[in-house]
Write the structure tokens for this entry.
Amino acid sequence: MSCSHLPLLEEVLRELESVEALISSGWRLAESIEQLQRYFSADIRHQIIGATPQLDPDLTVHDRRQLEIQAWLDGNGRSDAEWVALDDWPSSFEAGFA
């Protein structure tokens, strides 16, 4: 796992203590949520609450990460939750997605 932006993400999570974070990157395919939480400092690990499910990799889908996030929200009773994505792949989201 490349952790070059981890200090910045941790800083944001410390400032926004009520924010819960999901891992939607490819890292979740190789490591469990417990393993992923260990990359984070002990004081904010509890804010990393899960990882998005993987859509069928053989299925060609635009907006893949957006759909994976929505699938996690739907599957965890949070369909109406407000959320923000921090991602370096804007093509994984609908064009113009706010």
User: Anything to note?
Assistant: The chain has a mean pLDDT of 88. The first helix runs from residue 6 to 15. Residues 6-84 form one domain.
